[in-house]
Amino acid sequence: xxxxxxxxxxxxxxxxxxxxxxxxxxxxxxxxxxxxxxxxxxxxxxxxxxxxxxxxxxxxxxxxxxxxxxxxxxxxxxxxxxxxxxxxxxxxxxxxxxxxxxxxxxxxxxxxxxxxxxxxxxxxxxxxxxxxxxxxxxxxxxxxxxxxxxxxxxxxxxxxxxxxxxxxxxxxxxxxxxxxxxxxxxxxxxxxxxxxxxxxxxxxxxxxxxxxxxxxxxxxxxxxxxxxxxxxxxxxxxxxxxxxxxxxxxxxxxxxxxxxxxxxxxxxxxxxxxxxxxxxxxxxxxxxxxxxxxxxxxxxxxxxxxxxxxxxxxxxxxxxxxxxxxxxxxxxxxxxxxxxxxxxxxxxxxxxxxxxxxxxxxxxxxxxxxxxxxxxxxxxx
Length: 381
Prior knowledge:
Order of helices and strands: HHHHEEEHHHHHHHHHHHH
Number of domains: 4
Strand content: under 5%
Radius of gyration: 43 Å
Number of strands: 3
Helix content: 40-55%
Shape: flat
CATH superfamily of the largest domain: Cyclin-like
CATH architecture of the largest domain: Orthogonal Bundle
Number of helices: 16
CATH topology of the largest domain: Cyclin A, domain 1
């Protein structure tokens, strides 16, 4: 047996000696090993050498993760609609768009009814005449309590006018008084916002605030216009496009004090997130209306911030401070605007602008550096 191990096994694994397999140090080492031990010895070293030789092969093949990982067997979850009568593995299902049914094309069995069409919806911008391709009604309006989803009588009947009269009578009979007032208020809010160039988003915020005030019944006895004006004023402040009380008063027939009372009630009862209005918030719009450059606007904003730090013009309204800063900055950069022009834009009187400018002129060297312009261009108050 020892001779067999020495001759057969060594002869069998002799090619391994040529690739670096360690030869037994002596005949005694091989003779001391049994057949099984010798076989395991050669197999272990052969596997190690094979791995090392494969690592040295140029351009080895890339084994992807899909090849290495075993395929996972999963159930087929695809839902196939089969006709229970035909039981055809390749069903012929037809969708009838007019009735909204799923029908088997072979036997005529109705498999489903009142299905939902997920394709795009058609809209129409025509007047009351002609066909309306839309298949659904309007979307729900969060500003109303669902009345826009009620069924109404069509106004089109071929020109006789009967349907129009029925529509009017039905609307009066089913109208809710509270919602009728809301709709009228919403129309006034939209008209006022459009008059002063406010976006639809700001108008929607004002409508939401008005509805909340009506729900909580906080402003009983106040006129509708004063409540609307206060809601628009708060909506502008929330969206960082503030408007002054005078600008809001210009589009209403309500005095400034009445709007101020409604404003205080709203901000004290609702979390509006509205803080005090700063002068720099008005600079961009006022400078744009006066056709002033960006350098004038930057200087006016910097002047306002420095004024706050030094306490100059303390107690003055933000609009008056903004008007005086714009007047100073426009002369500083050689783009002078008169007090009359600034007064027409800001709504501040010329006397107020001159008085505020006097305070800024006396502290001009503390408020601005020479880099902003030549102080010699500033007119004496």
